[in-house]
Amino acid sequence: MFPSLSHDTSPDTTVLASYGWDDSWSALAGPLAAPGAVPGRVARVDRGRVDVLTGTGRVRADSRPHALAVGDWVLLDGTSVAAVLPRRTTLARAATSGRSEAQVLAANVDTVLVTVPAESAARAGRVERLVALAWESGATPVVVVTKTDRCPDVAAVLEDLALSAPGVEVVAVSVVTGDGVDDVAAAARGTTVLVGPSGAGKSTLANALLGDDVLAVGEVRAVDGKGRHTTVHRELIPLPTGGVLVDTPGLRAVGLRDAAEGIDRAFADVVDLADGCRFTDCAHESEPGCAVRAAVEGGELPERRREAYRKLQREDEWAAARTDARLAAERRGRWKRITRDQRAAYRARGR
Question: Where along the chain is Zn(2+) bound (predicted)?
Fold first, then answer.
């Protein structure tokens, strides 16, 4: 039994607590812990190898056969991952490769900082999508509007995003001037992950929160406003003010999968209006008695919000149907292989 599974106050326990370890993790780890097992948190994932932060330092470990993500809590047996603790939250998007399983961006996340540059023309739609992703994960989203020093009308941007993310805290920040950095630091509670497009200034903001130039940053192209992927992998780094920060590569595409609850929370204004529709299965198109369409026509709800909600719902439903079809095809393929192997075995016996 290792020290951090008990309630002592050894330095190991104190260090682990700075990474997010608490009594509930200790209780989960107890039944899984073999003699000599060491708890730690995954800070970086490479092919078959992980960097794990433990109470006595950073350990490079073999992660096979476990599928791990940055933020996972594990138990180490020497330099091998012996067990993985159940996740509290999982930030995941639909796999861009078309595979059935989702791509996990980070595990056991408390706060998702949805970063978007103030001058971005596509900020509203991108924010809605990322906020839905964050809500679905079980974490709390915070919208962070970056590079406000380049924007002539920050107030208008904040007002627009407040409508696009009802009930979500919106923070404006400029790392150049220092305005808003303390506000972002206050919003970064527990395990915090930065998500957003390339060029949003995530790594620059992360360095400001870390108090040092820990992460590489790159210039944004003037021709199209897009940035290079200066962050090429996800990494968990302790914050000097407490908690940990996960920086992620820029997300060009954010597909939703099994995200119905997250979408509803991101569009709470539309969902509230939908309660007044005549039909419970109203699609908010041409049905009589549609409260959502009436709100649009009366100027209470922007048409863009209605269309964005319906678009994300359709996308989520399509992803679910595609996944079901792919799983069915995979099952058929497995049975075909089993049948083929059996026939080959029968033929071999008859020779």
Answer: 277, 282, 284, 290
